[in-house]
Amino acid sequence: MAIALDYSRFYRYEEIKAFLQQCVDEYPHLAQLESIGKSYEGRDIWMLELTHRSSGEAADKPAMYIDANIHAGEVTGSHVCLHTILHLLAGYGTDTEVTHLLDTRAFYLIPRINPDGAELYLTTPHLLRSSVRPYPVDQDEQGIVMEDVNDDGLILQMRISDPAGEWKISSQDPRLMVRRQPDDFQGEFYRVVPEGRWQGDQREPLTVAPSRWGLDINRNFPAYWRPEQRGAGPYPLSEPETKAMADFFVSRPNIATVQAYHTTGGVIFRAYCTKSDDEMDQHDLKAFRALGQRGEEILGYKCIPASHGGWGSTRAGIFIDWVYEHRGLIGFTTELWDMAGRAGLDKDKEDKDKTLAHEEEEGLKLLKWQDEHLDGEGFRGWQPFDHPDLGTVEIGGWLTKTVRQNAPPGPLLEEECQKNCTFSLKHALATPLLRLEQVEGVRVGDGVFKVSARVRNMGYLPTGGTAHGAKTGLAKKPVAELKVPPEAKVVGGQARSELDHLPGFVEPGAVREQYLEWLVSTRAPCEIDLVVRSERAGTVRERVFLE
Predict the structure, then answer these.
(1) Domain that includes residue 532, residue range
(2) Is residue 251 assigned to a domain?
């Protein structure tokens, strides 16, 4: 049975597992399935390895790491991963790019880093940031606790009539709530809060209680971790999911580049998340910008450092900072699904620069877009409800899960999968790649042979993955080894020697090759093996006959 991916809905945990197992069953020469660890609730975190093993094991090839859904509700990323897997498997042998990639590279794909949070998100009306572990556990503040009070399967918003309220109904569209102008004194005003029940004895002031799920496991990585960062957890890698990710990277030194999928906003984030571009190695900044520009061309998303002020303040303990700073790798976090861009909003304008008129204009554009493209199904109109704690309220608002936070299932989700898969493959093609050329053994005397070869880096990125990785020793240098039988002896050069890292063509004009030479003494014809290993650029081998 051919593998199919349904774009009309998001997959639950067992469905993803079954999909991955079917990939292994139907493509055993290309796919292997492995659990990298357990989640907080004990679910396996599944990783699918893809490469054509007849051309070499995955460990001997530069690899691209791709993950998704570290945040519970960002399930669009899981679908992009599954689509990418299917594209690679189905394209091997027929698609030139795919065939080349699976012959020369490996892929490690984890469609759902956070299975517990995603399962809660997909099976209940609740919204949560990441882990289902209650944090902080002593949290008992009073206020509105989010809940589906009208039993319609959704948690939306409540608007409550209040002359001291900060909101009013837009005169342009009764669905839209807009902020009250400084001089507004006539008309009806409202408080707007999430749909839920009141927790606590005191009914005023009307506040929203913090979420019982306060962890953000994408703030739990060691790079620049700080305890005051919201959701950071008690210490770096305190959570089983992040610890499993870090252990996996250590166990796979051939990972040469990284892509993480999130939602939402239509932007490609890169390092740094906490510092300026001036503080980055400028060779690496050049590579980040060039690859990011490729992503901009394919996706229509801007590529910016995650610390960019227009998208919030600096963020500590983030995965892509750890990937670069502690592993020495190029990594991107793509925020999938750009409803704002589709609706024509000016995403370059920072929130602090937007007037109340701008906010209303943007809200109207969003509603118009969903009316035209989603037949109005993305917004639930306000309906009166007799609230058990608050009296008469109205409940309505945006459908967060399938419109605002994720690409709407159907053609829009499929489009998001296709274009992001394309960028991932272009990104993978940029990884370093060793090649041996001009390998020969020539008799130069009585029983003495000169063995020589040229090793080249054919990739865009350097063999260390980044200049930072090479400079700090995070990426080990390539090693050349000449393996000779007992009857032969290496008499010139070292049988095993460490080479310098080779630049990639990210640096035009740089010397991307090294000439290797040995003298071997033997009285009888023999075979010798030349092996050059680079953790991030692959392993290449050639056999030489001396006679």
Answers:
(1) 434-546
(2) yes
